Write the C-alpha cells for this entry.
Amino acid sequence: MNFEEINSVKALLSKPQKIVIVPHKNPDGDAIGSTLGLWHFLKNMGQDASVIVPNDYPRFLKWMPGNEDIINFERKNSEAKERISQATLIFTLDFNHLGRIGQMQSELESADATFIMIDHHQEPADYAQITYSDVSMSSTCEMVYTFIEKLGGVQAITSEIANCLYAGIMTDTGSFKFASTTSRTHRVIADLIDKGAENTKIHHQIYDTNTPARLHLLGCALKNMVILEKFRTAYITLSQEELDAHEYKKGDTEGFVNYGLTLDGIIFAVIFIENKEEGIIKISFRSVGDFSVNEFARKHFQGGGHDNAAGGKSDVSIAETTKFFESLLPNYTDKLWI
C-alpha cells in the first residue's frame, strides 16, 4: 500500500461505516484467521463490522475468538444479503477475484460499497477501489498485521487478534516450513506471541484434534498414492465412495497433499478429490523449488494460486483426470529436474 492508499483507508475508518468482511469459498485457516483478526480490530475501533463466509469451514477452525459471530451465507442467507446491501465498506480477504466466492458473487457485484482487497495471490482482479496485494507475503494474516501496522494500530492488537492471525500464518506456511516464511514472518509471529497468541494451544486445536475416521481416511489416501519417480511426482486420489465410507467432514483432507513431498526426491505432489455434489474433481497442487504449480494449474486445470501451492478442478472423472495429468508430465521433465 502506498502513502495515498493508507491515508484513504484512514479517512474511511475515521467515520462510522457498515463493514462486511468476506473470505473465499471453502475458507481455510488463513481466510478465517485474517477475517476474524481484522473484524476484532475494526470492532474495537467502534465500527459496525460483520464477517460473512460463503459456506461452512472445518471444525478445527471454529475455536477462534469471534467464530460464533460469523454469518454463514448459506445458512443465514437473508441476513447476509441484507448486511451486504447495507454495507458502505467491504473487505475481501485471501482471494483476488470475485469468482472465488461462489454464490455470493452476484451479491458483491451489485453492492454499493467501497471495496478494499487484502490478498497475497498472483494476478489480482481490479474490482477493489483500494488493492493491497503482495505475493511475497507468507499469508493474508501477515498482511492484515502489516495493514494494522500501516494504520498505526499495532499497539491495539489484542490477544483475540493475535490468536487469529497466528493461526492463519501458521497454517498457510505449513507450520513455518514453506519458502514464503521470511525473517519478517518470524518477527510478526514473535510480536503476536508477545501480544497473547497461545502458540501451543493453537497448534493443538488445529493439528491434534483428529477423529478416528479422519486418520482412517488418511490411511486410504496414502494407500492410493501413485509415485512417478521419473517425473519426481506423487499424487493421491480419493473417490466420493471412499470419502463417504470414512464419514468425510469438511476439512478432513486438509494437508493430505503434502505427504507426497515428504518422499525423498519428490518435488511435485497432487491430490485429486471427487465431489459428486458439485460434479467436479477438486485438485490441490504443491511443489518445492522452482516448479510453479500456479502456472501449471492455470494452464491445465482452471485454477491458480502461488508458485508452490495452488488449486484447480476438472470436470471429468478421476480416471480421465489422472490420465490427462500423467500425459502432461513429459512436457515438464526439464522443469521437474532443475
